[in-house]
Model the fold of this input.
Amino acid sequence: MIRCGLFLILPVLMMVSVLGISPAMADIYRHVDADGVVHFTNTPTHGRWDFYRKERGQVAASVRSYREIIQRYSNFYRLEEALVKAVIKVESDYNPSTVSSKGAQGLMQLIPATARDLRVVNAFDPNENIRGGSQYLRQMLDQFNGELELALAAYNAGPNAVKRYGGIPPYDETRAYVKRVKHYIDYYRKAGDTLL
Done:
């Protein structure tokens, strides 16, 4: 199956290079279905897609651009960079193609409905995802009067759960999440410009 697919793709790639047409560059994801058929896409729609390869020319740029994106939106939304880095670390471990079992997507794990509210069109695009996640963090901090633990709990469990319980909800996942993010905030404050 794979060989057959490659023989179909190669002529197209050769024609594109001969004609001087520049194909759109995007990260490529791979999925092997139950029948062993390999599928490729640049827009993964579920968590079974695995990162296959980086778009050309972007390997070294991605880490640099994550730092720049985090800095840009931290400044814009008046957030500490260590907070944004910590949320990304805990949510996705800096994997832009992550999809949770609940459908949260990308670096800052945006639920599709929340992403739509934040006008994030492609949650797998690091720039859009970090912008949307940073905006949502700012909204949660504003909604809970700057109380970091409540804002983090709301980011994880939703603001209604925090309001309903009058504090951090009694969910093991949420309590562990708040602790982990706070741990990484301290780490990034000390580590400075590092991401991992």
In short: Strands lie at 28-32, 38-41, 50-53. The helical segments are 2-19, 59-76, 81-92, 112-117, 126-143, 148-157, 159-165, 172-191. The CA atoms of residues 80 and 174 lie 21 Å apart.
